[in-house]
Amino acid sequence: MKKASFLALLFIGIACQNFLAAQSRATAPDPVLIASGITASELQRHLTVLASDEMQGRETGTEGQRKAAQYIADVFSSWQLPAVGDDNSYFQHILFKAESWKRVELTIGDKKYRHLWEYYAAPHLNEGSASPMSFNEVLFLGYGIDDANYSDYKGVDVKGKALLIYDGEPVNASGISYVTGTSERSNWTTEQKLAVAKSKGAALVLIIDSSFKENVAEVRKALSNTRLQPAKSRLNLRNLAPNCHLSSETAKALLGTQVKKVIRQRDKILKKGRPSDAVIPAKIEVTLDKETRELSGHNVLGYVQGSDPVLQNELVIVSAHFDHLGMRGDAIYYGADDNASGTSAVLEIAQAFSDAKQAGMGPRRSVLFLLVSGEEKGLLGSQYYVEHPTFPLANTIANVNVDMVGRVDAKHADNPHYIYVIGADRLSTELHRINETANATYTQLELDYTYNAKNDPNRYYYRSDHYNFAERGIPAVFYFSGTHQDYHRTTDTVDKINFDKMVKIAQLVFHTTWELANRDQRIQVDVKK
């Protein structure tokens, strides 16, 4: 933590004294006065430390990430927040598993195919074995779905066999899913398909990936970026069939002269909604040999206890991830916007709540300021928290999440005073109204709901830490400024941050959180998933 100058410290002290004095004279908390403590200079102070050379890009499991966690803990300690983490600390310690391939090979006939070019296998979806698997045929099994409305497995024995399936789900010409019976898509993810295949005894699943180019790029990035999982996690209990994803060209090579037969089978499924399978002769050998190592990481917890004896057991969680991509050689991925910006905003909001409490004007409900690691590895820090909550999830009324709020995207180049709002109405209409009212009353930002659309191709709703709370039925709102040309590059640096914009966004987050923490009734989950 860098030392502030004497004059800066003196100014901060005077400002705090004035704040406390003004609040003590007030008959009720003034949220505008409390939010005025969120300043561009303080945001810049935190962000400059977090995105410095010393933090080395804050990659989970590295010394840089540990330094960043300690900085955040020191800030919470300086405000005399109670240590509610493990062993009376500010930390929730997480043991992560890092997974990578020692050897991954796919041979069809006499040709060995190129991993990450013509097919890919993701370590986190495979257990791995040094022993190769050999097959003389594959069983085409449609989409690999086993649902009450549609089942590719009905009447089919897959034990010990290699399956070939399409990704996605069968949809007719009118866009109606045969699984749901509506235009809404089902929840049949790749993981669910692999779990069913494993439970039915399949030895291997080969998936024809319709988005191979995009997905293989993500797997390449994940493999170069040390994919992690919490060592103690429900995800580690999954039993998934060994699997590889194939490009359409590799799938055609596998099928050979039988390719038209499989296409006819698929078209039959899409036309009539009736499953269809076929045995295809094919010589295949697959080796998936994985290695695993363990790394330690941290979530950091700042807690402000509520003042109302009845409501203080209820909790609002304000979250942001403080990790980033670390270093590649000597190059530092600073992550100033992603997500030192969100982390700095949460720290400033936490100080506003802490100052209010010290002035005897604290929130009625308790508020947990949760800075998580492992987001860049797959939302792992927030996943770990919801699986090992410090406070009961049943008492957690909402999650307010801040991720990348320091830049201006191309769409809003002429108006930096905007924010994308994602997820607020997915579970609770009240949360949506509270945020809109807070903005209309206090901050007057442009609220852009583009990325909240259920058909958003970017799927941002599923890509930040709020989702782990929403998945468990806890209303969540995600604040996001959009991507830019420096996203996940070494050029995401402090000098490009718009701190005046950040103040407005942080104040909106504050006012929304303040209302959640002080209203008489907890918000209701009134929207069906």
How would you explain this protein's 3D organization?
With 529 residues, the chain is of the alpha/beta class. It folds into 2 domains: 39-82 and 305-404 and 449-501, Zn peptidases (Aminopeptidase), CATH 3.40.630; 98-292, Glucose Oxidase, domain 1 (3-Layer(bba) Sandwich). It is 33% helix and 22% strand. It has 14 helices and 17 strands. It has helices at 6-25, 31-35, 40-50, 63-78, 190-199, 212-224, 248-255, 259-272, 336-358, 380-387, 424-427, 429-443, 466-470, 499-518; strands at 91-108, 111-113, 119-120, 129-140, 162-166, 204-208, 228-230, 243-246, 278-304, 315-321, 326-328, 331-333, 366-372, 396-402, 418-422, 446-448, 476-480. The strands form 2 sheets. The chain has a 15-stranded mixed beta sheet that branches. β5 (162-166), α5 (190-199) and β6 (204-208) form a beta-alpha-beta unit. α3 crosses α14 (499-518).
